[in-house]
Amino acid sequence: MTRPANSSTQLLRPLALVAVIFFTVSGGPYGMEPLLGLGGRDGALLILLATPLLWDVPTMLAVLELNAMMPVGGGYYQWVKRGLGLRWGFYEGWWTWLYTFVDLAIYPVLFVEYASWFWPAMAAWKLPVCLGLIWACAGLNVLGVVPVGRASLVLGTAVLLPFVVLFVLGVYHLGPAAYGVTHLSLKGAGFSAVAMGCYTVMWNMLGWDNTSTYADQVERPARSYVISIAIAFVLIVIVYVLTLLTARGSGIDAGVLSDSGFPALGALVGGRWLGVALAAGGMASSLGLFAAVLLSVAQVPKAMADDRLLPGWLSARHRRYGTPHRSIVMCAAVVSVMVLWKFLDLVVIDITLYGAALFLEFITLVALRIKSPNATRPFRIPLGVTGLCLLFVLPVGIYIFALTGALMDATRAWKPALFALALLCTGELAWQGVRWWRSRKMDYI
């Protein structure tokens, strides 16, 4: 039977899913520029290699099992609701909502920063450009998941090609010896600097669970997610490592890299034209990340509204495209007022909120193994309950390490960390408000 052409009935295929996952989780190394200064020449590479093993691998495995068990719209919210109950499901949705607003606010700002590298006048138009990007991506999301997937394929090519050229020219001009690694050590790097380095890598590789919220719109989701997440993870790690090795080998000053970004590295290695290409890639990365993350988060308010935890009008679907258009518009409106925040502050808040929501998913997986041991799981982590608990010690440990370092920071990182902890407490306040509202049996507006 031929599938109708309407985008609301089309499903996301594995190749497009790889592109959407790439942009949801990474979008390229952009934003990783401070790592060289935080960890030092040898420490930065050690942080980059260790953090994905401790943070991402356990997360991906948990997401794959939970998603294979429940490939439903709303993803992680639905998982936690089933495993831990409605209250904790509300916490999951609320915390994820908060951190994603923070996360989304980063990308329009980065877009303007990279555009300003070769259009300096762009900086004076930061706010209108950010707003234009936000609402253009909102419009794309209203059209549906398939257009976002197709756009992600195009933007993914625009992001990756300049880094491929950077690496090739780096080997050609710098020589293979510049890429040699003889020693990895954190010696000389302070505790808070290493912690902020971990935050940087964690932010550049978060969001594996976000890709689950539209699982009901993916072709053969259990199989497609295993393949697509594995490909995306390998691709992301390779691109990050090669980029950092090129930066190390070029001898670029860590302060220059942090302040001017990868376009400065491109100009050093290949000339101004490569710097321009990397700046354009940064713009494409910001655009793709915003579109992909908005695609994910817009599904959660819709699912919560269906459960009478948020106003019912959020659950409405577009008549033609079948997308939660009101939820998309509301998310875009909130982000529009957050684009003036500073990058590093947003990263600390982002990871702190995200980690709390992620840990609920870990607990959910363990709870479902106990409560529903015989439930169908097309993908299953080959560990028992005790093994799962030990596995999840790894991401919890690096999260606590990074948060502790931020709270002990002598400059200003402790301020956004405390603010994020305060935001976590709003989950209980919001839940009590929902309970009161539901107890009065009021109709939704």
Q: List segments where confidence is low: pLDDT < 50 over at least 5 consecutive residues.
A: 1-9
Largest sheet: none
Structural class: mainly alpha
Coarse morphology: globular
| Count of discrete alpha- or pi-helical segments spanning 4 or more residues | 16
In angstroms, what separates the terminal alpha carbons? 41 Å
Element string (H = helix, E = strand)? HHHHHHHHHHHHHHHH
Radius of gyration: 21 Å
Strand residues, percent: under 5%
Number of strands: 0
How would you portray this structure in words?
By secondary structure, the protein is mainly α. It has 16 helices and no strands. Helix 6 packs parallel to helix 8. The longest helix is centred in the N-terminal third of the chain and has 35 residues. The radius of gyration is 21 Å and the shape is globular.
Core attributes:
single chain, 445 residues, mainly alpha
Protein topology:
Elements: H1 14-25, H2 35-69, H3 76-84, H4 86-118, H5 126-143, H6 145-174, H7 191-204, H8 221-250, H9 254-260, H10 262-270, H11 272-297, H12 299-306, H13 325-336, H14 343-371, H15 385-407, H16 414-439
Helix pairs in contact: 1-6, 1-8, 1-11, 2-7, 2-8, 2-9, 2-14, 2-15, 3-4, 3-14, 4-5, 4-11, 4-13, 4-14, 4-16, 5-11, 5-13, 6-8, 6-11, 7-14, 7-15, 9-10, 10-11, 14-15, 14-16, 15-16
Summarize the entry for a quick read.
The protein has 445 residues and is an all-alpha fold. It has 16 helices and no strands.
